């Protein structure tokens, strides 16, 4: 496959780049965290989104090298923002299933933290429910990661097939409410019920909550009563190159 060998070369030639999407307090005044999102700056095709090349990376095993690169680069960048800009917020990194389930993944994370100098509490790993199908192995890995001091977020929450008992046994710090529950929240009573139930459940389980995919003022206004909720979405910011994060948001954190 042409794209596969392109991707292999791209990785070697430093063509992967990270974009960064800030996550805000509900008023938009504070940046509470930043999510790293990988893109491929292809010499001819331009900016290729992860939905196009990550499936190829997963089929070919390139995902391990790409995943390691993303982790290291994310930690380096946040460490630099902390040292130069005084940021005291976490960087979130999305994991693929194969990456999470690789042998000694916790030791890999530990090594990246040592190498980059980022404190564990400033790294947040985003996993999805569908990655946790083998509950026993997953619990063990999550527990080791949690013992390191890194934070765990359950991404796209509500769209997978996990049972609620997972929430009981996994050391999870944050639920990210999937944007499919947000897109029609001002009109749809079922979405309203689901979102308020997730928020209340998270509070009782002492987990933090992020609402994803906020695109409009109406959606934000609807969520406004949830003071401690973290907000992510195009309404406040789309994913941006690092220099834009620096010029726009360093002061806000
Ligand atoms: O950024 P964008 O909307 O194009 O992301 C599309 C999908 O790719 C999302 O599900 C996102 O979680 C995933 N994604 C983005 N960056 C990474 C990454 O570094 N690793 C993994 N495993 N997934 C990522
Ligand atoms: O699966 P995950 O939640 O990691 O997906 C992250 C991706 O979602 C981001 O890379 C970004 O491109 C996309 N995204 C972020 N905010 C919004 C939004 O407000 N609306 C839509 N449609 N997509 C968003
Ligand atoms: Na994510
Ligand atoms: Mn998500």
Automatic annotation (TrEMBL):
The keyword Transmembrane applies. Keywords: Membrane, Transmembrane, Transmembrane helix. The chain holds residues 545 to 797 of 799 of the full protein. It comes from the Bacteria. The keyword Ligase does not apply. It comes from Alkalicoccobacillus plakortidis. This is EAL domain-containing protein. Residues 1-253 form the EAL domain.
């Amino acid at each position: 496959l042409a794209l596969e060998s392109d991707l292999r070369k791209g990785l070697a030639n430093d063509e992967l780049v990270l974009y960064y999407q800030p996550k805000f307090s509900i008023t938009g005044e504070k940046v509470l965290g930043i999510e790293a999102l990988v893109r491929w700056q292809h010499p001819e095709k331009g900016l290729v989104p992860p939905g196009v090349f990550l499936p190829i990376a997963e089929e070919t095993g390139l995902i391990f090298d790409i995943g390691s690169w993303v982790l290291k680069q994310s930690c380096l960048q946040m460490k630099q923002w902390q040292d130069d800009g005084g940021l005291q917020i976490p960087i979130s990194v999305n994991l693929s299933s194969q990456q999470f389930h690789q042998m000694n993944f916790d030791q890999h994370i530990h090594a990246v933290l040592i190498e980059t100098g980022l404190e564990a509490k400033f790294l947040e790993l985003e996993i999805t429910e569908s990655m946790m199908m083998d509950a026993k192995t997953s619990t063990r890995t999550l527990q080791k990661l949690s013992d390191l001091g890194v934070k765990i977020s359950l991404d796209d929450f509500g769209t997978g097939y996990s049972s609620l008992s997972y929430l009981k046994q996994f050391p999870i710090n944050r639920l990210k409410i999937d944007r499919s529950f947000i897109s029609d929240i001002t009109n749809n009573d079922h979405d309203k019920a689901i979102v308020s139930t997730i928020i209340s459940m998270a509070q009782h389980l002492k987990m933090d909550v992020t609402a994803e995919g906020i695109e409009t003022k109406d959606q934000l206004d609807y969520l406004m009563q949830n003071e401690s909720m973290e907000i992510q979405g195009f309404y406040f910011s789309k994913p941006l190159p690092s220099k834009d994060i620096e010029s726009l948001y360093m002061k806000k954190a």
